[in-house]
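Let's inspect a concrete specimen:
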Amino acid sequence: MEKLKIPLYSKIDELRTELSKNGIGKIGSWKKDELGWYSFTDYHSFGNTSSVNGMQNNIAYYINGRQKENANEVKIVLNINNDKETKKALELLNTISQKTIKSLNLEMPKGLSQSIVNQKPNEFENDIYRISLELDKSKIDTWNLIIYTK
């Protein structure tokens, strides 16, 4: 079995339970597909609906792994469907990121919160993990915060 630097990534059920406590929904069962293993929450909608597309902002967790025994990454996905509430949405992403990092027994990287609230894609790395904050621009802005174990 692969030795991971984030110990909780080797305890899938415990990982799912801990992340499910963070307020954006219960993480589903650990399943296999052609790409590997995965689990996720339903999208947690919040705020007001957009006058443009009729949708609320939403956020979800995804866990991915190459093997049944381990996760390799935890991803938080934030879809900004109502751009009038971007600030509130990014504040929630920041809060959920902090809770997630605490759930994983990791230190919050210096500068991550500022990168989130200032909408600056960024990357943070040490000998335990790599955290990537990415922006995918299309009709809406989608922010991905991905925590990779080493």
Notes: DSSP finds three helices and eight strands in the chain. Residues 95 and 113 are 9 Å apart (CA to CA). The chain has a mean pLDDT of 97.
